[in-house]
Design brief:
382 residues, mainly alpha, DNA polymerase, domain 1, hpI Integrase, Chain A, three-stranded antiparallel β-sheet, 15 helices, 8 strands
Length: 382
Amino acid sequence: MPAATTPVEGVYEKNPGSGVWYVRYRLNGKLVRKSIGKQRAAIDYHRKVKVLIRSGEGFVPATAKGSPKTDTQLAKASAVGSGGVTVSELCDDLLSHIASRPDAYRDQLNPPRRIEAIRSKFGSREATSIRPFEISDWLDSMKRKPATLNKMKSTISTLYQHGKHRDKVKVNPARDVKQRNVGGGVIRFLTPEEETRLRNVLSAQMENKNELWQYKEAQVRHRICELDVALGTGMRKGEQYGLRWRDVDFENRQIVLRDTKNGSDRIVYMIDDVFAAFETLRALALGRCEKGQDIKPEDSVFAIDGNKKWWGTALVEAKITNMRWHDLRHTFCSRLAQNGASLKIIQEAAGHKTIQMSARYAHMDQSNLRSAMAVLNRNRNA
């Protein structure tokens, strides 16, 4: 079988005699193909793209959409298209939008922080003057983890998307910024031995009868319930701590998660451990008040909106390292896989958007694989 040929760059007629000419060029390692039409127009387009790529003095689209533009053309578009709208104005608009929709934006802390960082860097600039390479260079200078940089890039993109929705800009430079590779990594999950040590630490905190507030029996029972819910539902941290009592259906033993990360509502079913945890939380009736949000104490299931302090302290006391709260979600999925749950079940239970995301846990269930491979054994009694 002949080896597959690598698409070449340049100008070509895909279907000879059709009169429809294409250009193909490579940008940041990615091949971009665009249908132009007449041969002369295709040649001119490709020549302009190559000049801009070599000089770096202009904009080259990373997809078939858009057209290459020189710095002069960009400057003219900025003057006409933005009406002098600055990045700071886009920041104000998005901050107001986030603050007015606490149910849709349950995290009212981190997005505003990222927006203010963007304002600090680009705030005084006209929004349409920002170039993709400037964003990329700024992200590189942060020396942060790839996942953190991707969140910042996503926030910039959201900033411009909201601006386009409000007819303030017509561009989105973040679209042409390359996504950082976070890698698959090794799935970290809580082992049964680690879980035992962790629960022993929490139980000991109650038994010590320490007079400090954080060691009061009600607070520690609350933490145990937080752990039970996380391990028994696999909810994301924001989903769990943003939960309202109106979405907990004791009669049908189910939880409604609204406007999740995937953009839709989903149902989470309660196992006995989770049902008992919610009953305990309801009986504890610990209040919660958050600044800037209209949340009545009785509306919020959990008395806190995050667990960074007690979780970190408990891990240290239990001698558990390299463990994040999100790894409890991995633990939930891993335990399902280890007990023979299908990938479809894991996808539905965890609320994964695609089954490929659930496939990361397939290796956790080795029993079916071992049984299937056993048929390859030679019959030594023959």
